[in-house]
Specification:
With 245 residues, this protein is an all-alpha fold. The chain is built from 13 helices and no strands. The chain has two domains: 101 residues, Leucine-rich Repeat Variant, CATH 1.25.10.10; 92 residues, no CATH class. This is HEAT repeat-containing protein.
Length: 245
């Protein structure tokens, strides 16, 4: 008697090995895409991160919308990082427009994670979407992500204009937010210096101290931010800057 061909059964949640393409879906069976979508919404963070890893390992345009959707609501940092990685594995021609669309979301996490992912993709077509509204967003996480994305995406000729917007945020937030802003300003290179030096003479002491600390970090990148701030306080109190010393 001839036995019928029989494929080994694959468990519903089993993902293909990194070098293995998904087997064709048989009629009546749940599709691989549907299983991946379900896994990305699993209650278990370990399942979600493995699903994102599998989707990024074997990129497929069908997954991009779901990955972007999950970025907006995923509660775990390490899972969000894997979602971002998975998106970077897909074509920017597909991912960038969808991520740019998220920048208009009312959900802060959607905006911040989209900005973070755009900074990792590094495709300049996203630059026009990095608006002043995002760079000055009331949510610190969104603003910080916008600063990081902006310095990656900005064309050389537009660096002075970006610096002018960034210095309006000097003195904002706590130490982490201020350090993020200092790093973004410094990343613009020499083109930011005239704008930064103008801020060093600001009437607001918080702005002035932050600007001076940023200049200190520019000249001494190994200096800690806290020590740069303390030095900035001393300099501001004495009314001197590096230009005067």
């Amino acid at each position: 008697m001839t036995m019928p061909d029989h494929k080994p059964e694959r468990k519903p949640d089993q993902k293909p090995e990194p070098d293995q393409k998904p087997e064709p879906d048989e009629p009546g069976q749940e599709t691989y895409a549907a299983r991946a979508f379900r896994a990305l919404e699993s209650a278990g963070a370990s399942v979600r991160v493995q699903a994102a890893l599998a989707v990024g390992t074997d990129p497929d345009p069908r997954f991009v919308g779901k990955l972007v959707e999950r970025c907006a609501v995923e509660p775990e940092f390490h899972v969000r990082e894997m979602l971002t990685w998975a998106l970077t594995r897909h074509s920017p021609s597909i991912t960038v427009p969808k991520l740019v669309g998220e920048l208009r979301s009312e959900r802060a996490q959607a905006r911040s994670q989209a900005l973070h992912t755009l900074s990792k993709i590094g495709d300049g077509q996203a630059w026009p979407a990095i608006t002043r509204a995002l760079l000055t967003d009331a949510d610190d996480e969104v603003a910080r992500a916008a600063w990081r994305a902006a310095v990656v995406l900005v064309p050389e000729r537009e660096k002075p204009g970006l610096a002018a917007v960034l210095v309006t945020q000097l003195g904002r937030g706590g130490p982490e937010t201020r350090l993020s802003l200092s790093r973004a300003v410094i990343a613009l290179g020499e083109r930011m210096m005239p704008t930064l030096q103008a801020a060093m003479a600001a009437s607001d002491p918080q702005v002035r101290q932050h600007a001076i600390a940023t200049e200190r970090l520019w000249y001494d990148p190994d200096a800690g931010f806290e020590s740069a701030i303390e030095e900035a306080k001393r300099v501001a109190a004495l009314g001197t800057t590096s230009q005067d010393e």
